């Protein structure tokens, strides 16, 4: 009881600190404390950026485990050094990852079991000798997914109303829909920069309205999303490709094959990035599926695909977005799946930190040198 009381007292002391107290007293060169993102003593109240963790992977169609991503990234983040060469004051921003919801996590486990049985039934040829409940799984899953979207939107609105920047850490790629809609409605006109191996333009894939394979189809239902630019795409179906081709320019796709062939023929990555950025409106939402990277960087992600961007290629693109004067209004990082070691989570934590830094630069809260 004494140890518990001391722990609660320590947590209360941390929560009462102001950001100025932390900047004055914290040693960024020291050992990070487990339990907080990057081991920093920021709380949602004194941080500039609040990250919503969403441990959810109900509709994944290949390998599951992304629901464990937020906890794994949190744990791995304490091993990162905080100094950033081109943003020396990066750690001073103040980043806080909200507590991971056990209720959401438990719901994901429950609904995932149902969805997995239903997907297996589909893959086995939809045989009739199954319980009727299996056939009606999508309707129940769709209701649970809508409730999740509403919860994410509510959390996002709460922190945005307090003047915070807001980002999201999934979970599968269906999880940021509530955040995207909230920011699109708040700003009136945004573009989405999607880094991904997949187009995610399927309508209600496998019967699931909020499938991880449908996130961008769903995002485009919001009229305030004026542009979708997809980078690194290398695994897609004909319907998705045709949807992009017939979008009257609303969707621009930079296929991984085309990018690589252009580089092999003498183009520079800078020139390709500048072309990508020229298509973006002034306000940008970054949706970063970890499988957009080369799978050596994320071998356990749910649907790895050969090819993809290197870490610094992806970060350079987003840095160029900021240098072009665009404002990053929000972002998500999804599909980080922990394996037997911390590698995927370590890479995920580094992506998350860099995205946070660059969004802050774009909003005038940090400075590039």
Task: Give the uncertain stretches in residue-range form.
Answer: 1-13
Query: Mind telling me the C-alpha Rg?
Result: 20 Å
CATH level-3 fold name: Arginase, Chain A
Q: What is the beta-strand fraction?
A: 5-15%
Annotation, overall tally of beta strands: 8
Based on the structure given, which CATH architecture is correct?
3-Layer(aba) Sandwich
Kindly report the spatial arrangement of strands forming the biggest sheet. 2-1-3-8-7-4-5-6
Helix-strand sequence:
HHEHEHHHEHEHEHEHHEHEH
Largest sheet: 8 strands, parallel
Fraction of residues in H or I helices:
40-55%
Number of helices: 13
Q: What does it look like?
A:
The longest helix is centred in the middle third of the chain and has 24 residues. It is globular, with a radius of gyration of 20 Å. It starts with a helix and ends in a 7-residue tail after the last helix. The protein is built from 13 helices and eight strands. 43% of the residues lie in helices and 14% in strands. Helix 4 packs antiparallel against helix 6 and helix 12 packs parallel to helix 13. It has one domain: Ureohydrolase domain (Arginase, Chain A, 3-Layer(aba) Sandwich). Strands 2-1-3-8-7-4-5-6 form an eight-stranded parallel sheet, sandwiched between helices. With 369 residues, it is an alpha/beta fold.
């Amino acid at each position: 009881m004494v140890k518990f009381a001391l722990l609660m007292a320590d947590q209360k002391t941390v929560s009462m600190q102001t950001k100025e107290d932390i900047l004055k007293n914290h040693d960024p060169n020291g050992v990070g404390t487990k339990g907080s993102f990057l081991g920093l003593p920021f709380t949602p109240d004194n941080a500039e950026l609040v990250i919503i963790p969403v441990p959810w992977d109900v509709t994944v169609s290949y390998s599951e485990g992304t629901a464990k991503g937020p906890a794994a990234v949190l744990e791995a983040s304490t091993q990162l050094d905080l100094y950033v060469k081109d943003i020396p004051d990066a750690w001073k921003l103040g980043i806080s990852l909200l507590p991971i919801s056990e209720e959401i996590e438990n719901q994901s486990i429950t609904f995932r079991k149902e969805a997995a049985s239903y997907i297996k039934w589909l893959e086995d040829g939809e045989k009739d000798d199954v319980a009727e409940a299996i056939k009606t799984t999508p309707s129940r899953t769709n209701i649970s997914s809508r409730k999740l979207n509403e919860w994410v939107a509510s959390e996002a609105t709460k922190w945005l109303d307090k003047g915070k920047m807001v980002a999201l850490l999934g979970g599968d790629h269906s999880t940021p829909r509530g955040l995207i809609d909230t920011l699109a409605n708040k700003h009136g006109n945004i573009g989405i920069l999607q880094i991904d191996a997949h187009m995610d333009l399927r309508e209600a894939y496998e019967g699931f309205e909020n499938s991880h394979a449908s996130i961008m189809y769903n995002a485009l239902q919001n009229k305030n999303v004026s542009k979708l630019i997809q980078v690194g795409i290398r695994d897609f179906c004909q319907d998705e490709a045709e949807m992009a081709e017939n979008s009257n320019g609303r969707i621009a796709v930079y296929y991984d094959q085309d990018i690589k062939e252009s580089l092999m023929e003498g183009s520079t990555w800078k020139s390709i990035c500048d072309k990508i950025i020229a298509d973006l409106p002034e306000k940008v939402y970054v949706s970063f599926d970890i499988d957009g990277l080369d799978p050596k960087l994320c071998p356990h992600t749910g649907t790895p695909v050969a090819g993809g961007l290197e870490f610094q290629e992806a970060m350079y693109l987003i840095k160029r977005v900021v240098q072009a004067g665009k404002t990053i209004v929000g972002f998500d990082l999804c599909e980080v799946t922990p394996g037997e070691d911390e590698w995927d989570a370590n890479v995920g934590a580094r992506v998350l930190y860099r995205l946070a830094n660059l969004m802050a630069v774009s909003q005038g809260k940090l400075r590039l040198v």
